[in-house]
Amino acid sequence: MYRGTKSAALLATFALMGSILLACGSNSANSGNTASPTAEATKAPAATEQAAETTRSFTDWSKHVVEVPVTPQRVIFHGETTGDLLALGVKPVGVMQDIIKGTVFEQQLTDVEDVGFPLSVEKSLTLQPDLIIFSNSDEQQYEVISKVAPTVTFNSFATLEERMRTLGDLLNKKQEAEDWLAEHAVKTAEMWKQIHDSGIKEGETASVFTMYPGNRLFIMAGTGLPQFLYEKGGFKPTPIIQDIIDKEQGFVEISSELLPEYAADRIFILNPVAPDAQQSTNELMKSDIWLKLPAVKNGQVYNLDLLKASSDALSREWLIEELPKALIKK
After folding, report:
1. N or C: which end of the chain has fewer CB within 10 A?
2. Rounded CA gap, 165 and 175, in Å?
3. How far, in Å, are 55, 131, 242 from residue 66 at the CA level?
4. Quick count: other Cβ atoms within 10 Å of Cβ 284?
5. CA nearest to 128, candidates 80, 83, 73
C-alpha cells in the first residue's frame, strides 16, 4: 500500500519532531444495526425510514464497507492533513494536537481535544464521535479503533484533489469540495504565471530535502511540499525523484554523499523543528558537498518551515502566497 504503518509513524514523527476496548462503545456506535429480528419486526415503518436516511454505506481506502452518518457531526481526525477538513468548514472534535503545532491552522484548533499518537481509545470514547477518520492502513489498530465509532481509513498521501473529493463525499460536503478545488486551481495557475513571468522557466526541476533528528537526511517526493511544487504548471521532479514518486513513496532517507544525485535546478529546504535537526541542517549547508551543488552556486536554494509547507488544503492556500515571495527576487 501507499502508506504502511512505518511510513505513517515516520511522517507523524516528522511533524511531532521526536515526538480497553469497551464493549459498550461498539454497542452504542452500531445500535441501529444490531436490533434483534423481533425488535425489527415491531419498528414502525416511519422510524425505519428515518434511520435509513441518517446513515449510509461508505467504502474506505482499505476497502472496509462502513455504515457512516450521512452528515457527521462529531468527527475525530487522526492524520496529518487536518487542514483539508477545515477548508470544507468541518472542525473536528479530536485531533493529534502535537502534530498541528506550528501549522498554518494551529490557532483554529486550540480548543480541540487531543486524541494522541497513537490514537487513545479511552480519550476517543469520552468525545462520543459519530465518525473517526483514521489516516493509516494498520488493521490491528483499525480493529480496536472501530469499536469506538464508525471508522474509515483515509489516504493522506493521496493527491489534494482525491483527498478533498473523498472527504467531500464522506462529510456530505461534495459541493464545498468542488468549489474549493475550482478556486484553488485558478489561484494556483495565477501563481505559476506570476512565477514564470518573473523569469523562472517552465520545465525547471526542483528537489525538497529535510533533516530529521539523528543527522538523518530525507528527500521528499510523494507527500508534503513536493505535491504542490510538481503540480501542473510547476516544477518537475528529477528522474530519480520521479522514480520514488512512481513507487508511491512519500520520502526516502539518503546519505549526504548522494546529494548531487538528488539535487535539482532549485532546492527547497524544509526547516525542522527539533534543535538537533536544525543544527544538522546548518552543518549540512556549510559542507563542501553542499556548497558545490549548482543550485547552491546559483543562489537557487529556498527555506520554508516544515510544518507550514505541508500538503493539506489550508497549507496550500498559504503556499500560494509564500512561494512567489521566496522565488521572485525583488
Report:
1. C
2. 9
3. 10, 10, 35
4. 17
5. 73
**Residue 265 in 3-state DSSP?**
coil
Tell which residue, 299, 230, 29, 306, has the closest CA to residue 146: 29
Is the predicted pLDDT of residue 10 greater than 70, yes or no?
no
Could you give the CA distance from residue 280 to residue 214 in angstroms, rounded to a whole number? 8
Q: pLDDT by residue (tens digit) across 262-297?
A: 999 999 999 999 999 999 999 999 999 999 999 999
Please give the pLDDT value at position 184: 97
Q: Are 326 and 195 in contact (CB under 8 A)?
A: no
- With cell 449510509, the residue in question is 56
What domains, with CATH codes, occur in the chain?
Answer: 5-172 (3.40.50.1980), 179-327 (3.40.50.1980)
Q: Are 81 and 156 in contact (CB under 8 A)?
A: yes
* CA 7/CA 37 separation, integer angstroms: 44
Three cell numbers written together for 89: 468548514
Q: Estimate the crossing angle of helix 313-327 against helix 174-197, to 10 degrees.
A: 10
Please, what is the end-to-end C-alpha distance for the chain in angstroms?
A: 44
Helix or strand or coil: residue 41?
helix
Band (pLDDT 50/70/90 cuts) for residue 38 is very low
Please state whether beta strands 216-220 and 251-254 pair in parallel, antiparallel, or not at all (unpaired).
antiparallel
Residue 1, CA atoms < 13 Å, CB-side half-sphere: 20
* CA dihedral sign, ordered 81, 85, 86, 87: positive
pLDDT in tens, 175-185: 999 999 999 99
| Residue 316: all three cell numbers together | 496550500
Among residues 135, 167, 169, 174, which one has the least CA distance to residue 151? 135
